[in-house]
Model the fold of this input.
Amino acid sequence: MEEFSFIEQKTLFNQNNEIDKKRITQLKELNLGFTENEVRFLGLNPFNYTVSYYIGIDWLKEKECYITVEPKIKDLDYVKMFIQCLQHHEISKYFREIYNIDFKRPKIKTSAINWDLTPFLIVHFLSLVEIIVNQGLRSNYIIREENLNNKIKGKIIFQQQIKKNIASKREDRYSCRFQEYNVM
Done:
């Protein structure tokens, strides 16, 4: 599996810190099918082959080659940054728009840098649970109609009572309409 590794806001470089024209040619030969104003492959610009505003890993061609984009700031603790964002209620509302993990696509096995998102996902999950808990459970009264045995609950529905119970000589049953408290 082939890897194209970028640093955010830079083009492909080789070990001598020179633009890697061979790798750019390989990238062009993939025919990735860019359309105008389309953001794909972690912000890869098809004209100058730079990436910007994204970090992460994504497939260029599934199960063939992928792209990795590392932060331009060395030793950036992005998980700590995200945790800090979650502490602000207004920011945490839009937090799910910051990242994307596609669980339906095949996993990418890489030796690049450590892309361990587990702590990030756990903290995000817990923040969502906290928001849901703070909103409280939804509850409501629902109207039910039942043919009850030996008891009356709510109002008797006389039309159904006569048709179902009295006409069939089931005088131990009562057709009732009542409200029931329900927690959703």
About this structure: The first strand starts at residue 2 and ends at 7. The mean pLDDT is 77. The helical segments are 21-29, 78-86, 89-93, 118-135, 158-166. The chain is about 25% helix and 25% strand.
